[in-house]
Structure formats: structure tokens, C-alpha cells
């Protein structure tokens, strides 16, 4: 059930990222909603759901934004894998963990996407790379902190899973 929720959520997040989120720009910067939610899901609920978020959300972004098919899922899957590794180190900082991980992984994801995109489509004019990536990473970290707090709260309120008796 939770993987189906992750797949549906990733589809909705990709649609929101391409339709409504561009209107929420601050200083010309918009957040990567699918990345933020995939990292938060990985840190709070586990790797499997985060992988579903990354793969389904990345494919939806590629199809809807006419990007090279598979480039965004590749970048998001790499970021989710790094988030799963970072989850062990960020366990003591439950509330700050999603913000820290989202900031770092937003930087990694932006650079990895530029490398992947330029490998598929040719050289990309970089221009002012830190001036482009850093504000987006801060915006993603702010959104990651908010999403991390909300998902942690929902996770704490959820009743414990029942053990299934195998016959």
C-alpha cells in the first residue's frame, strides 16, 4: 500500500512541479518538489518508497517536460541512494536531517543533472553555476525542513504495523 501511495504521490508531485510550482518562484528560483519529497520519504519512511518516488516522479518529469528519457530518474535515484546512506548519520538530528540532506543532495543532483544532460544532448552553457545552484539548494532545504517535520509528525501518529501471521 505504501509503495502505491508513493507512486501516486510522485505523479502528483511531478505534475505540481511543472504546473503550479513555477508560480511560486522566489527571485527566479523554484524548488525541485520531486527531489525534496523523495529525499524526505527516504529519510522518514525508508528506501523502497524513496526509490519509487524517484523513479516514477523522474519519469513523469522527463515525459512531461520533454527531457531526455531516463535522465531525471537516474539523477533522483542517485540522490535517494545517497539519502539512504546519509540517513544513518542524520538519525540523531531528526528534525534538521531532512533540511541538511535536501540541501546537500540538491547541490549533488543539480551538478549530476547538468553532467547527464550534457552527455546526452551536448554541452550546456553553465554561466554562473554557484549563483544558479545555491539559491535553489537553499529553497529546497527550506521546503525539505517543512516536509520533514510534516512527514515525521504523520509517521509518529500512524498506528504501529500489525504483524502478519504466516500459515
Question: Overview of this structure, please?
Answer:
- It is a single chain.
- This protein has 167 residues and is mostly helical.
- 73% of the residues lie in helices and 0% in strands.
- It contains six helices and no strands.
- The longest helix is centred in the last third of the chain and has 29 residues, at 129-157.
- It is globular.
Helix content: over 70%
H and E string = HHHHHH
**Residue runs with pLDDT of under 50 for 5 or more positions:** none
Rg estimate, integer Å:
16 Å
The tally of structural domains comes to: 1
With helices defined by DSSP (H or I, 4 residues minimum), what is the helix count? 6
Oligomer: single chain
Structure class: mainly alpha
Rounded to the nearest angstrom, the distance between the terminal CA atoms is 22 Å
Number of strands: 0
Shape: globular
Q: What's the mean pLDDT score?
A: 86
Largest sheet: none
Give the amount of beta strand, in percent: under 5%
Amino acid at each position: 500500500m505504501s509503495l502505491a501511495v508513493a507512486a501516486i504521490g510522485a505523479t502528483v508531485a511531478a505534475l505540481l512541479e511543472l504546473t503550479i510550482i513555477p508560480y511560486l518562484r522566489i527571485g527566479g528560483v523554484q524548488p525541485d518538489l520531486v527531489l525534496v519529497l523523495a529525499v524526505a520519504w527516504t529519510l522518514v519512511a525508508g528506501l523502497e518508497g524513496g526509490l519509487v518516488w524517484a523513479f516514477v516522479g523522474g519519469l513523469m518529469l522527463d515525459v512531461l517536460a520533454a527531457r531526455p528519457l531516463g535522465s531525471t530518474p537516474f539523477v533522483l535515484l542517485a540522490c535517494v541512494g545517497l539519502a539512504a546512506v546519509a540517513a544513518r548519520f542524520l538519525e540523531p538530528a531528526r528534525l534538521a536531517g531532512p533540511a541538511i540532506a535536501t540541501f546537500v543532495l540538491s547541490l549533488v543532483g543539480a551538478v549530476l543533472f547538468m553532467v547527464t544532460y550534457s552527455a546526452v544532448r551536448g554541452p550546456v552553457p553553465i554561466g554562473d553555476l554557484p549563483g544558479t545552484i545555491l539559491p535553489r539548494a537553499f529553497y529546497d532545504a527550506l521546503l525539505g525542513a517543512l516536509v520533514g517535520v510534516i512527514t515525521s509528525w504523520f509517521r509518529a501518529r500512524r498506528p504501529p504495523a500489525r504483524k502478519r501471521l504466516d500459515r
